[in-house]
């Protein structure tokens, strides 16, 4: 994993745990950091008062300010005015940070800058004072961290990895194991999207409109859709590691459905729903006006997808295969 800086929240935890006489190794484990990272930060930012030794110690706010000052000194776009102006000029021309960094490398400039450095400058105090973020193709009020501040091991723990998924799910032997994803549309649609689900054994597809990409909203909507099914027909769902699925625990507590997660950047591990998305795009292209898409329209698309014979089902349709499995549960 690439290096990421400690933030104020983490430094506050370090300060509190040091005051409680907790070892650096335990602090590192709590933060999901290597202990050398914690040792280094304490050493760099430890305050020493020559006249009042009882004030000596690690203070999170002071440590954060010192770290930010060090970063400012080493940032190229602070130290090199000509490079900074060249970058800002291209931002105002509508270039993305990736395009600017890539072009500098292509032209063989001796001094180059990474797109992450450009983003960091845009969202720094200096960049915000110049309102540089308004020139980005995709704008936010604040820069999102390159990696989530909350350790991903807590969001998607190892015991929920697709590699821990039972073999009978992998081989499609049993009914009631699903794959889930979101179909994203043009930016003009805002946060509206379409959730796609497919039952792995029968290839039965479910599509529903989702008006908000927040994880809490998505999980509530998903539970409303899945809850009418018998428990044995909704045993598990496999997702990727998108932020929309962070509240997966609600599925277990709410409707008793387990969740499994693909490896990072490995969408092929949920190939059934990826295939469904490709077929559904024939009826739901990226420029679809989702606000005008009624529940009746969605059902008609699902009926068409589920009414098509499939070779993998012995030329039965997904609807026929799904109904057969439901009959067995009675």
From TrEMBL:
GO molecular function: nucleic acid binding; transposase activity
Assigned keywords, A-Z: DNA recombination
Alphabetical list of InterPro entries matching this protein: Integrase_cat-core, IS30-like_HTH, RNaseH-like_sf, RNaseH_sf, Transposase-Integrase, Transposase_IS30-like
Superkingdom of this protein's organism: Bacteria
Organism the protein comes from: Pseudooceanicola batsensis (strain ATCC BAA-863 / DSM 15984 / KCTC 12145 / HTCC2597) (Oceanicola batsensis)
Gene Ontology terms: biological process: DNA integration; DNA recombination; transposition
Record has Transit peptide as a keyword: no
Biased composition (Basic residues): 139-152
PANTHER family named in the record: TRANSPOSASE, TRANSPOSASE INSI FOR INSERTION SEQUENCE ELEMENT IS30A-RELATED
Stretches for region Disordered: 139-162
PROSITE patterns on file: INTEGRASE
Pfam families: HTH_38 (PF13936)
Name of the protein in its database record: TRm24 putative transposase
Entry's Gene Ontology cellular component terms: cytosol
Residues in Integrase catalytic domain copies: 162-326
